[in-house]
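Can you give me the bound-state structure? Components:
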Amino acid sequence: MTSNKWAYSFEDADGSNKDLFGGKGANLATMTALGLPIPPGFTVTTEACLRYFEDGGNLHNDAKGELQEQIAMLENRLDKKFGDAANPLLVSVRSGAKASMPGMMDTILNLGLNDDTAERIAKLTGNRRFALDSYRRFIQTFGDVVLGIDLAEFEGILSKTREAAGARYDHEIPPKALEELIAGYKEVVGRHCEKGLPHDPMEQLYMAVSAVFASWNTPRAQTYRKLNGIPDDLGTAANVQAMVFGNMGDRSGTGVAFSRNPSTGEHKIYGEFLINAQGEDVVAGIRTPQSIDALLELMPEQAKELFNTIERLDEHFKDMQDIEFTVEEGKLYILQTRDGKRTGAAALRIAVESHEQGYFDKEEALMRVDPSSLDQLLHKQVDPTTTAKPVAEGLNASPGAAVGRVVLDPERAIQLAAEGNKLILVRNETTPDDIHGLDASDGVLTAHGGMTSHAAVVARGMGKPCVSGCSELTVDEETGTVTFKGYEGVLKEGDYLTIDGTTGKVYIGELALVDPQIGDYFAKFLGWADEVKRLGVRTNADNPVDTRRAYEFGAEGIGLCRTEHMFMEQERLPHVRAMILAETEEERREHLAKIKEFQRADFEGIYREMHGYPVTIRLLDPPLHEFLPHDEEEIEEVIRSVKSDVTEDEVGRLKARVLSLHESNPMLGFRGCRLGLIYPEINEMQVEAILEAAITVRREGEKVDPEIMIPLSGAKAELAIIEEKLRPVAEAVFKRMGERIEYKFGTMIEVPRAALTADEIAEVAEFFSFGTNDLTQMTLGISRDDAEEKFLRQYVDMGIYAANPFAQLDQVGVGRLVAMAVELGRKTRPDLKIGICGEHGGDPPSIDFCHRHAFDYVSCSPFRVPIARLAAAHSAIREKRGE
Amino acid sequence: MTSNKWAYSFEDADGSNKDLFGGKGANLATMTALGLPIPPGFTVTTEACLRYFEDGGNLHNDAKGELQEQIAMLENRLDKKFGDAANPLLVSVRSGAKASMPGMMDTILNLGLNDDTAERIAKLTGNRRFALDSYRRFIQTFGDVVLGIDLAEFEGILSKTREAAGARYDHEIPPKALEELIAGYKEVVGRHCEKGLPHDPMEQLYMAVSAVFASWNTPRAQTYRKLNGIPDDLGTAANVQAMVFGNMGDRSGTGVAFSRNPSTGEHKIYGEFLINAQGEDVVAGIRTPQSIDALLELMPEQAKELFNTIERLDEHFKDMQDIEFTVEEGKLYILQTRDGKRTGAAALRIAVESHEQGYFDKEEALMRVDPSSLDQLLHKQVDPTTTAKPVAEGLNASPGAAVGRVVLDPERAIQLAAEGNKLILVRNETTPDDIHGLDASDGVLTAHGGMTSHAAVVARGMGKPCVSGCSELTVDEETGTVTFKGYEGVLKEGDYLTIDGTTGKVYIGELALVDPQIGDYFAKFLGWADEVKRLGVRTNADNPVDTRRAYEFGAEGIGLCRTEHMFMEQERLPHVRAMILAETEEERREHLAKIKEFQRADFEGIYREMHGYPVTIRLLDPPLHEFLPHDEEEIEEVIRSVKSDVTEDEVGRLKARVLSLHESNPMLGFRGCRLGLIYPEINEMQVEAILEAAITVRREGEKVDPEIMIPLSGAKAELAIIEEKLRPVAEAVFKRMGERIEYKFGTMIEVPRAALTADEIAEVAEFFSFGTNDLTQMTLGISRDDAEEKFLRQYVDMGIYAANPFAQLDQVGVGRLVAMAVELGRKTRPDLKIGICGEHGGDPPSIDFCHRHAFDYVSCSPFRVPIARLAAAHSAIREKRGE
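Here's the bound-state model for the whole set.
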């Protein structure tokens, strides 16, 4: 579509054509069409922008002509004139692309000011300081964005002026000094630009519109488009709008209002305003604005019109609106409306109530809430009214806030927690050995490690707040001290800290927290999500407590029950270690029998809390050395503690064996099903525990649906050999207990080869669960633990990966492999059950991928279950809508 | 095809129908048809075998009838009778499937013996001991393979008999004792089998043929078929043949002959025989056989017939034959002929001469030599006539033999080698730090590590013998001693050892070695290979010496020139370390400039030796910590040595930096192109060195064809960013030197994601080189260094992988990924050059895979170049033949 018309008044523009008028222009047209009191103006189209580039960066003469016409229309209508000393017309110029984009020119206010008009405005407003300040701001902005002059040059003069005037803030500079400042500014402009600041407002306008167009192609905007797949040939529009003034006296004012409360979502107009003021005054914070309700008394007529307008906008856009308004000598103007930012709680309530109001159907209500924003509802938050300043900031690795005493040592944490202390575990980094310390603490703070570091992953799994990669933090374990860069104090064990894992902020002392806000809206809303979603949502849980929580959050089963955390618990670890150190199968079986008692009890608890939903239990996965210390002395100690009457020779031999368990790349090492193939008795024990527990719980009257999952398979033969060994073990359990129970036998797909040979794997496996953490590591050849700080963040910055591939599934690479595996697997076994149990299972874009590839379910940590339910609903709705 | 006939005499059978008669039966039919003196007999068909299974393991009555008929015909023809006390007919029964297969019943000799006929044979041969011994052997074999009696039961009695007779060997047991032994054997049989040993030879025959059939379905045979893709419904045939006796007096004898010399390939009959003897006598080693030439004097007529027959067989089968013959009372019988086993040198000469004799065309000649057998020709061997006994045996990790003095420490090795010593580096295992020690030694022996351990891989690359995983070996570095289990002596530095990497044997002292046998046949033969092969064969070489060797072996370029070994050399390492420890880009560039001088000289040498063939140079790949020590003290030492005037604080900070380079999974860590993306100046230096050297050598009049290869890429963006940085560097070199040179820019495909997104990668890369070592590690999720001893060998034993996937490309899994990448890459860039540079590039089945997937070349270590040339020719010929 091309047109011969380059500029449209808001009346003539089409609010539905964002391609031509950009987002901002289209909205202005819409509001104008609604008959709302919008300061008049016009939009220069995106086509004019494209033409501008075609013409080598020159504004077309026709376009200039149209600008003149539009300005003339404005002049007539407002009875003001561009450059007129009696009643000067001033306008704002704003860029407005189809989608908003960083790096583009934003706004020039008060275009039309020159020495003459500035004087006139001073008189009209009775506020000379204001007029001069507006003028100097205009010169500064124009110089910067239109003429490309370094802002520092202006700021240098500004700070000198401030100094000379003895002013701390800009608004304290007296009019006289402002005059000198303006003279100085003009000198700067003259130095860069022969012609100096254009006196003619029309010339100013041509240049400003050209600058808006040119800003479409700043490097930052280009990079942003490249990374976000926005075509280069869209172009931007430019909006020119008459300025109005809220500082023309007591019958003028300016303010901001929301159609609903942005914190709670309550349907009640919310906002604030200042009488006889411009927008800048609110920002400067010199005067305290009044609540919007006060406007009803001060300007009852305008307030009524405003409130009505706000309601109309809410109704029209069917969303909570964030509105800027100005009253100029008793006349109300709406300067801008946009969908308002809101908290997760507000988003949810607004969506529910808007639906109930008849704005839209349930599906649209669901689409109106960003799944990730639900996170806020599920965790404690630092009281938003706090005035405390954070001492440091790290990565917001696991949401929620926690207050507690500093503890550095995981063992101490267990002890202190037992004494009833709330704790924040503060470490340089955490390792799997620290799990119990983490479990005993209310939150964790680390100096190193990224969003997917050990501490972050485990904390998210446990639903505990975590701030990781806090580079200002130094933990000196030797002296037991904690310091922060730029903070003079030194913290020790027992001192209080507050961390906010939602924002990454760290505070000294005990801050007030506010509780999670799960209420009726939450349950109702997620109920709607369940009605439309196709994907099942399960949880990753290893114990009855997490299982219950996930069930309450709506989990429809367990997608991943790891058994190794059970092995790590204090009372069991000695048996596990003794099992590993066993020198005969018989000895190994003896210790396994003890571990089995614990495992069976664990499984019983988990089945009970899952009330008949499927429970997928993964057999032992980590390399055995993870259960043993790495230090030679500690190894000896362990050997002596688990083996009685051990000779020196035996200690030496066993120590050598433990050391030989060490691997140069444990990620690719002797773990997963490889363990079970070399030591089948471990698998056997686990299968017995799984099935015995299942029958036991069923006898209590509960339904039970166990699924046995083999980790790290890479070849069909592995599964075939394991299955061949395990089926008879199951039969023996059934015989012993006098009853059978159904169970499924399946595998994780986490080794690329398993995905590549999924057709063969599916001959044995009854279900696949994509372990996308390891699958991503192996497919990308990137060790998650090592990479984040060494190169992965820079990779994301360079745009090599669009997002951290351990947080968001790499759909281009890993996704291709997953899609292939799904296709191959279902070719062999059409009813193959397919799920995902990596971290990605709780990430909305990754969940969408799973939906599109016909997964049966996603599985995520308990606290992400609601997010996954909503994300799954979004996917189903998008599919329905053909998006 | 079904037939109503179950048994065919050798005259009636069809030598071309191996489906029906099995391999052995068909060959017997062929020889009979040729009119050769074959002891008469018949074959029971594979269909009879299948019918046997259909009938639930029972020999069909019709088949029994046919056996009777065939026996009757034999009796008539030989004037002997089954069970006849005057002139008893004895037969052998052998299984004979289409392809030979382990786990199946092999042979029963002398069937027809019973108390009566044994006595008669004793008289006829005049050798009572022989007759009785044959009888007891018959009972033992029949008891074992037909009746399923545990051999141990027989052997218990045998050893008691030996003891009682004061005999060390079986052949020293006197006839009297043998009689008692036979009685004992019969008692054993009677205990297991009500009827006892069947007296009736016909009954014996039914049972033996049934046992042959049943052995088709032993578990071992079934597993073998499953693993080798042999259908279960082929069945086996059974061959029944009249026994002849070489021990009937001086006009009798037995021997073995080859139609050509199996060691050298010379076309001259070679063999040995014994007068008045049976085959067992040769095996027992009591009498020393005579050379076959002596037969011409002792039995001129029979010798002439034998020699003529041998020549006819050589001509008929068009291959060197290994023949067993017996002369029974002046009558020559050929018992068996088969293609003879031969050395690599013999295979090659036989193939060449057979072609020149007109047996077959060049292509068939090429197909007659197993590519892997060429290995023997290229390396020194232990003199095959040695009587020395090995002290230990390990894995034959890198072929060839070496004699040298024991050295334990790599640094000492450099020193001792400089003094002119031949050395064997003896280590528990080797690491990349040991490369120079390895380079200074003539061979390497390790206690740990498999076929793909570091020592093995490096030694193969250098063409040095290596015996790895020698579990009898203990190296005590503290005391500087080397011991072998079962050997009382203790070796120290300077003591002599001989290792044979072709066999894995280790000898104390200096053994005589024989030189490699590359001669005219070799060059001529491989010239033929080059005529037919389609794949190019390149080499992996990092220095001029290896490059020259590979060029002499026929390499057509370098497929992988690693640059890190150059970084490791003693004079450079300090600069490399200083570069890594540099704290600013400037400082880093300073040290890089020094390294560049070395690199340029290396590249010049390599280009000169490659004479215009393409040279693919891989930019720096290993993680930086590989260039630094891991021990804290050593790190400090290095820091002080490369940084002058360093403060304690700086040392501390640098040490922390070095330690922070440590990674939990270095394989998946900060290496490959990731280094070049974070420190682009390393790449820049290397590209300058590559191109400057190329232009320098071209100025000497040599052609040069450099290819720049980026390691470990996983995303198109990585390559795009690197290319964007490197192209200007190349232009700057051209400008500086005043001339341009063509070069290619490509990448290794070793990260699964690179293969999955090969269509995108090929937008930037002009060539792919599959780094199948790392690709296999990541695709299988198996760390080569860790896995072999922990589980991979057991995996191969269990049949999970058909072969070690690091030695032979896993075509099912990794191969699928490679095939996909080739297809995707060529879709984007049809002229994409594709090669392989992993260890698999020298493995014939993997080479065949590359041929079938239209690779342009394979690249392997210099010593495997001839193997690869022949393997590539095989692939081309197989393709032509539609195989």
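A couple of observations. Chain A touches chain B through 49 residues (CB under 8 Å). Residues 113 and 856 of chain A are 64 Å apart (CA to CA).
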